[in-house]
């Protein structure tokens, strides 16, 4: 899935939305915007605990949450799913306290959906959000092979989100989780998962029309062929007696109140299917992504979703894995094929840390705003980032 013979580079200029400076403005204008541009880059006030939970049907769920225990380096034991990983498990390094006790209180829920064949521990964003007072629950999606597993995953992933919310409502982590506001954050096919959970509906007729004119063999093999040859199997897995025409039935969970698809696949939905999403949405992506190209995911998502509160953050020149942890935290990576190392570890347009800092800051600001943080909205304004290069920003956040 991760190797592409022909890479596409979409170069996007920075859009700041700044107005001209008034010549009569005071000599000492308002304080610099640097704090608003990076206010949520550093970790929040909470140390972070980590534990593993299980749903009644046996699905593993990884949990990050605020704790009073001191944070520490942790070696996450992660099941091997990505092709080429050497053993049944491998280590991902992080910074959390294993099996710590949660602090007293109630905290809003973030369901985190990882990329295909990865695991939640690949993403330091989970720890980051927990440090700001969220409980992050990440289901361990079990797929490993795109061709064999993508149709089941397409249906089961949104169901997994619902099962995680059920787990939270049933008192997981001692009842500290507030499920009155539930965000779904996801990367790659986790971004698809966020969109489907928020109500985006399949439109495979639209996909067929698009694929009829597609010439790129990577796109045809990854985004077209599995779904267009597997429509009957997909319908059967959804419990449908026949293949629908037009929009398919929704996989939405009405408890989802905001989403953040990061490099999220959206080609299954089309314009009409994306318009069914009405919850607040933050779209994040690298413009040089060849795993989920801009016009097969982030671009159409932002353009066509029906949300009245939405934002888009484009990292010019960044690629598909800009949001995962540094390869310094993936000690197994030296043992996997070189093409995987190149695709996972190296960024062309951004340093890994700069990309992570921006994604962490933007996601945190967006989710805090939608849970009532009094100052987070100040960071959701393109003028704040006028001095930063390499960004395309659009904010229409209520």
Question: What would you say about this model in short?
Answer:
The protein has 398 residues and is an alpha/beta fold. It has a domain at 42-282 and 294-313: Alpha/Beta hydrolase fold, catalytic domain (Rossmann fold), CATH 3.40.50.1820.
What does this structure look like?
This protein has 398 residues and is of the alpha/beta class. The chain has a domain at 42-282 and 294-313: Alpha/Beta hydrolase fold, catalytic domain (Rossmann fold, 3-Layer(aba) Sandwich). It has helices at 34-38, 125-131, 146-169, 172-175, 189-197, 204-212, 217-228, 231-237, 270-274, 298-304, 338-345, 352-369, and strands at residues 47-54, 60-67, 73-79, 89-95, 97-98, 107-113, 135-139, 177-187, 256-262, 281-286, 310-315, 391-396. The strands form 2 sheets. Strands 5-1-2-7-6-8-9-10-11-12 form a 10-stranded mixed β-sheet, with helices on both faces. Helix 3 crosses helix 5 (189-197) and helix 6 runs antiparallel to helix 7 (217-228). The radius of gyration is 20 Å and the shape is globular. The two termini are 37 Å apart.
